[in-house]
Every structure is written in structure tokens, then in C-alpha cells.
Q: What sequence folds into this?
């Protein structure tokens, strides 16, 4: 063998390692993202770009493998494309999101491809080619055994065995086997807001803050008790609690439902259903918005834009509108997610319509909008009230910035534009910091920033901005100079004055948080259905206790009324009794007084109904 031939063989052997190194690079990016929990949307885009570049380089490497004939190289490439198409078609009913096949299937196929070429260097080309054909079939075959039902908050696929029923299927089967027998309240009854009730999205002030409530913080010795647990249809709606009733929305096969349950037992009182189903492959099916209560009525918006006014006691339909038609608005990518807001005698909804129809105000008694206003065209946040008295205004965070509108006329009082970098749609509520400051979060677009409203109430200016904290899915709370919330899917604390991140700990997924202001503690509802008690401690993540409350994927905001915490997921809802701090002694002794019995109901057995 000549020296030239030896060099060529050596180069060919060295070149055989390039393919394996490329696939190791792809898996390395995947592993780094999982271990470091890098901000999800930005990392997803970066990972897809790395996969694309690595795949193109892999093809260049493959077509330069002279140990295979050109016909063999072309045949393997064509077979790889054909297998991807065939298995995509075979799994279309169970894996609706092609990103999952790209994220997992493509690296797996390229890995087997590369290492087969490396391991079979001494075999004839036809055997190596046939082996690649068989290996690709084997790699794709496991996808026939699984079902992907959307994604988690970190953009990892939610995967189950193909033959296991979904939460919705189990719920519908149970309803068919044991139909609900609603007990409708008398028509003459009018629900009234009681002290401690939770009448709207994220509470009375839409800030996820509970006041005038103190609970026992010793969850190790006096853990909260689950009073009831019920299966529910899929939805990302939160709950409101008014006058002993809990209201939410859910999907029931091809119908959207507004449901009223007994807050003490979970038993269904009434439901109002409309034909329609919104579903997309990233987050699944069901309504997204939370109902609003005012003057005995429930106002609820479905994912398709149907806006209903219902009698709170009976579920009787009072009036209905199509928000999309009223605003000339296109269907949003993830449906109408915006919870309606009642201010004075107006029902405020975001629609994102054309021709200054971003925001609509309906009369509470029904009819066409009394005013419309420009407030941007894309948002998955909800309108919220801010200020007091004559300075009271509606805030709406959208792709074009934060808008402040007058509730009576919809006139723009001020607007704070944002500088969009990647076009990530707004999805979070503005977090109030005192009477004249707000904190905004929008993940990969700008991170987090604090703005101050001018003393004349006509403009707003930036105080600080930080790209180090990227809230993109979960809302924040504020307590004693510090902001607590999620950086991606990891809980964190940020100094509200300096924007310095104090700590980043607690992997609770795409969870949500409620602040119990009087005691300086928080309850986080994690993505996997846990309720976690945390102290508002700017120095460290101080966890005081946790319980597993529900199963399923819980992106829904929790709610608190009195000493009861309500949590839900895409398949279950539960009521959790929080032991009151002021009644620990009497609770241990058996609750002798009738007053205690009213605030601390008798615990019933957990059962599916």
C-alpha cells in the first residue's frame, strides 16, 4: 500500500467521525436546555436553528461518503424522507404537532444513521445500505406506540402511551355512565358578593393578592386537607368563587360549557353549553378565559369568541354576542384567551380587531358595543383596572405596548410602546408596584421592565429593564419591594427597585402564584398539580410545605375564597382547606362552635362524581 493510499484511507476513517460528532452536538444542545432550563421560546428557536444547520452539514457529510455508491447514497436519503412522511401520516391522529417529530425523531434517525456508518465500515455497501433501511424503520416505529397531547410550559412534549385514555375521554365516559343531575337554584335567588369572595380573574383586583386572611403555616404538622376533587373537561380557564358557588369553563366534546359547582362539595349546580370546539396542537382543547361576576350575573367568553351573560343562580342565558364579529377580528392563533372585565356599567373585552376595535365595551344589559378603542391586535393577556377615583383606568398589555384607557369612553390616556425583538405576543398581566409604577414581562422579547406613570397621568417612562429575567407564561406578584414569579419555568425573586435578580430556584414548571399579603407568604400551583407554600424571602427560596392536589397539566390560575384554595388542571379540579391560624386550638379540639363549622366545613371523602 502506497503512502498516498494510506493517507486517503486515514482521511476517510477520520471523516466517518464527522457524522457522529454532528448528532452529538444536537443531543448536547437538547441536554443543555433540559439541565439549565434555558428560557423556553428563545431556546426553542436556537435549538431549531442548530438542528437545521447540523442536519444540512450531516447531508453534506453523507453525500461525501465514497464507501457508498452514489445510487446507494441517494437511495438512503430518499428512504429517510419517505419514512418521515409515512410515519407522520401514520401518527397524525396521535402526534398532531410535527415539532415533536423534529425535536425527537430527527436526532434519533441521524444518530442511528451516523453510528451505523461508523460501525459497519468493513462490510459491503449493499449490506450497509440494507441495514440503514431497516434501522430507520426501527427508529420510527416506537412513535406508533405513543400519543402526544400538546406541550408542557418548557416546550417539551406531553407524551403518553397511545392506548391510554385522555382525561377528556375519561370525563365524558363518566358523565355518560352517570349523567349529572344539576340542582338548579330558585330563579328568584340572586347571588351576592360576600367578603372574601374571588369574583374575577386573579381575584378582585386582578393582582393574585389575598388580604385579610391568615393561615396555619405549619404544613408538616397541620397539612391542608383536600375537601373534594372532581374530573372536569379540558380548559385553561381559572375559577371564580361567589356566594358559595365556584364557576369555571370547560370543553365537553364538541361543546363549550360554563359550569357552576357547589363550592363546598364540588357537585354541579348548573351548566350552560354552546356548540363549538377550539383546539390546537400546542396546548390542546377548551376555553381559555375566566368568567367575571357582577350584579348577580356571570360574564364568560369562550375560545371561539362567544361572549355570554348568564344568570349566576340558574345559568339562564340573558344575552350573547360574537366578539370576533363585533370587532372584525380574526381568530387568534391560540384562541380568545382574554377574560372579560366589569368596570362601572361596562363589560370590557379585548378583541384585537381592525379599525380601532382592539378593545370593546358592552353595556351590562346587552347590545352592541358602546365604544371601541385601539389597543393593539395581538394579546393573550386580559384587561385590568388600575388607579382609583377619577384616575381609574383600564390597562391592556398587547403586542403594541401597554395601553391605558378611560372606562367611560375608551379614550387613550397614555400608551407605553414596547420594542419587540422576536414578536412574542403579550400574555402576562401588568404587575402594580404602588400607585404609579408597573412591571411588565414578556420573555424573549425584552425580559422584564418597570415603568412609572407621570404625575399628570398622561404618559409613562421606563425606569429599568433587564433581559436576565424572562417571565413568559406565568404572572407575578409584588411584596415589600420585591417581585416574585417565574423566570421561564423556574421561580425567582427580583428587586423591584434595582432589577437585580436575588435568587432563581424552585422548578415548578409553568405554574402560577397567589400572594397572601398579611403573612408575606405565597402559594404556588405547579404545572404538575402541587400546591406549594413559600415565604416571601428575598434572600432564598424558602419552601414551607407542599401537597399533591390534582393530576393533569395545570396551567390554570388558582383561586382563594375564605380559607379554601381552588386549583384545577386540564382534567381535574380540587378544593383544599387551609387551616386558619386563628382557629388552630379549636380545630384540634373538634370545632365545637357553629361559627367554626361555617368557616371550616366538615371534610368529606374524596370521590369522583
A:
Amino acid at each position: 500500500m502506497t503512502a498516498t493510499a494510506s493517507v486517503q484511507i486515514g482521511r476517510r476513517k477520520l471523516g466517518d467521525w464527522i457524522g457522529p460528532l454532528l448528532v452529538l452536538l444536537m443531543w448536547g444542545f437538547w441536554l443543555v436546555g433540559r439541565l439549565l432550563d434555558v428560557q423556553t421560546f428563545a431556546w426553542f428557536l436556537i435549538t431549531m436553528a442548530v438542528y437545521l444547520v447540523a442536519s444540512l452539514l450531516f447531508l453534506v457529510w453523507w453525500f461525501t461518503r465514497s464507501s457508498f455508491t452514489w445510487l446507494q447514497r441517494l437511495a438512503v436519503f430518499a428512504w429517510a424522507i419517505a419514512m418521515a412522511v409515512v410515519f407522520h401520516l401514520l401518527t397524525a391522529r396521535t402526534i398532531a404537532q410535527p415539532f415533536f417529530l423534529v425535536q425527537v425523531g430527527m436526532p434519533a434517525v441521524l444518530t442511528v444513521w451516523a453510528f451505523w456508518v461508523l460501525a459497519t465500515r468493513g462490510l459491503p455497501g449493499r449490506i450497509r445500505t440494507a441495514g440503514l433501511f431497516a434501522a430507520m424503520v426501527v427508529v420510527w416505529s416506537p412513535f406508533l406506540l405513543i400519543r402526544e397531547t400538546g406541550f408542557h410550559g418548557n416546550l417539551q412534549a406531553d407524551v403518553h402511551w397511545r392506548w391510554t385514555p385522555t382525561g377528556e375521554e375519561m370525563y365524558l365516559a363518566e358523565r355518560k355512565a352517570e349523567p349529572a343531575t344539576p340542582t338548579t337554584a330558585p330563579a328568584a335567588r340572586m347571588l351576592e358578593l360576600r367578603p372574601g369572595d374571588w369574583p374575577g380573574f386573579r381575584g378582585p383586583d386582578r393582582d393574585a393578592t389575598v388580604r385579610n386572611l391568615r393561615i396555619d403555616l405549619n404544613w408538616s404538622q397541620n397539612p391542608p386537607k383536600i375537601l373534594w376533587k372532581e374530573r372536569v373537561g379540558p380548559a385553561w380557564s381559572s375559577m371564580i368563587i361567589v356566594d358559595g358557588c365556584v364557576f369555571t369553563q370547560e370543553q365537553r366534546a364538541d361543546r363549550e360549557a360554563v359550569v357552576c359547582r357547589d363550592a363546598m362539595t364540588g357537585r354541579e349546580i348548573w351548566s350552560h353549553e354552546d356548540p363549538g370546539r377550539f383546539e390546537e396542537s400546542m396546548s390542546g382543547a377548551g376555553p381559555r378565559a375566566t368568567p367575571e361576576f357582577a350584579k348577580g350575573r356571570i360574564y364568560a367568553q369562550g375560545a371561539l369568541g362567544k361572549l355570554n351573560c348568564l344568570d349566576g343562580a340558574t345559568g339562564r342565558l340573558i344575552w350573547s354576542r360574537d366578539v370576533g364579529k363585533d370587532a372584525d377580528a380574526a381568530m387568534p392563533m391560540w384562541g380568545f384567551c382574554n377574560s372579560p372585565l366589569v368596570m362601572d356599567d361596562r363589560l370590557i373585552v379585548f378583541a384585537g380587531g381592525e379599525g380601532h376595535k382592539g378593545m370593546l365595551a358592552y353595556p351590562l344589559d346587552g347590545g352592541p358595543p358602546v365604544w371601541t378603542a385601539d389597543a393593539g391586535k395581538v394579546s393573550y393577556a386580559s384587561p385590568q383596572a388600575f388607579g382609583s377615583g377619577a384616575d381609574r383606568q383600564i390597562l391592556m398589555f398587547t403586542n403594541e405596548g401597554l395601553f391605558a384607557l378611560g372606562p367611560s369612553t375608551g379614550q387613550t390616556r397614555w400608551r407605553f410602546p414596547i420594542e419587540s425583538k422576536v414578536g412574542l405576543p403579550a400574555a402576562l398581566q401588568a404587575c402594580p408596584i404602588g400607585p404609579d409604577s408597573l412591571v411588565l414581562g414578556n420573555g424573549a422579547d425584552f425580559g422584564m421592565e418597570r415603568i412609572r406613570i407621570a404625575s399628570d397621568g398622561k404618559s409613562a417612562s421606563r425606569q429599568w429593564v433587564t433581559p436576565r429575567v424572562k417571565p413568559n407564561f406565568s404572572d407575578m406578584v409584588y411584596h415589600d419591594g420585591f417581585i416574585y414569579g417565574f423566570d421561564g419555568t423556574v421561580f425567582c425573586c427580583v428587586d423591584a427597585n434595582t432589577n437585580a435578580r436575588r435568587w432563581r430556584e424552585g422548578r415548578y414548571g409553568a405554574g402560577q402564584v397567589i400572594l397572601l399579603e398579611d403573612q408575606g407568604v405565597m402559594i404556588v400551583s405547579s404545572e404538575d398539580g402541587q400546591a406549594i407554600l413559600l415565604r416571601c424571602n428575598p434572600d432564598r427560596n424558602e419552601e414551607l410545605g407542599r401537597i399533591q392536589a390534582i393530576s393533569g397539566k395545570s396551567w390554570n390560575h388558582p383561586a382563594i375564597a375564605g380559607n379554601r384554595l381552588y386549583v384545577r388542571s386540564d382534567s381535574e379540579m380540587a378544593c383544599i382547606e387551609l387551616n386558619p391560624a386563628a382557629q388552630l386550638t379549636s380545630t384540634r379540639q373538634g370545632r365545637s362552635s357553629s361559627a367554626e363549622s361555617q368557616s371550616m366545613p366538615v371534610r368529606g371523602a374524596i370521590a369522583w362524581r
Remarks:
- The longest strand covers residues 245-252.
- Residues 22 and 57 are 8 Å apart (CA to CA).
